[in-house]
């Protein structure tokens, strides 16, 4: 009886592993392959460290092969909210050098972000949901700014601060003839100096948490969502740039705000 249980367990485990269908990444010695995640990367572990070099910063992972190899290895990427897995093979000329990794492709999803005590998770989530719901229910006749790209209107309705968090209320109004699919959201701290080259200190990604964000805005539909970031003080000659980027398209909404603009942020009671 015990042997039968073991065999059944192995069959179930095999089915789970097969069901993951890990994405295969091709790497090369002469070209850098880039993975873009929708959340900040915490840790990257190559299956065979001697095969390829990996570096990461913010939401970007860069991979370069250290030599040729004729077998399949793997790569594990951990974020605060879960774990991603990839198969890795060598190809002199990779089919693609840029990969956008969807948030729903995690092989493991954490119950709570890394470093958050379990006793605090429910209280934090409840408090945040109350704030976000309050923001979404506020009816604005005016907005801070908007960007129009081919009859898709991107609107920043208002910005708020509460409990050392900044909340930005965005809307997407799709008046075009085709659906709008969101690829990813970017939030960057940028220098406004007139430099032709940007150093890492002059441009870097800011970590954010999306709320009520849908991946698709259908024709004649309007959707609102909230981006949450930690409270910060902008230095002179710097700006925060928000980007809403379309999947396989060029209809992007880009918003930039300087220190002067941030003074308009309202305190949420």
Give the helices and strands, then pairings:
Layout: H1 2-20, E1 23-27, E2 33-36, E3 41-46, E4 52-57, E5 60-65, E6 73-79, E7 82-90, E8 98-100, E9 108-109, H2 118-137, E10 145-149, E11 152-162, E12 165-174, E13 180-191, E14 203-205, E15 209-211, E16 216-217, E17 221-230, E18 238-246, E19 253-258, H3 259-262, E20 266-267
Parallel strand pairs: 1-7, 2-8, 11-20
Antiparallel strand pairs: 2-5, 3-6, 4-5, 6-7, 7-9, 10-11, 11-12, 12-17, 13-14, 13-16, 13-18, 15-17, 18-19
Can you tell me about this structure?
- There is one protein chain.
- The chain is α+β, with helices and mostly antiparallel strands.
- The protein folds into 2 domains: 21-109, Immunoglobulin-like, CATH 2.60.40.1080; 142-267, Immunoglobulin-like, CATH 2.60.40.10.
- Helix content is 16%, strand content 45%.
- It has helices at 2-20, 118-137, 259-262; strands spanning 23-27, 33-36, 41-46, 52-57, 60-65, 73-79, 82-90, 98-100, 108-109, 145-149, 152-162, 165-174, 180-191, 203-205, 209-211, 216-217, 221-230, 238-246, 253-258, 266-267.
- The protein starts with a helix and ends with a strand.
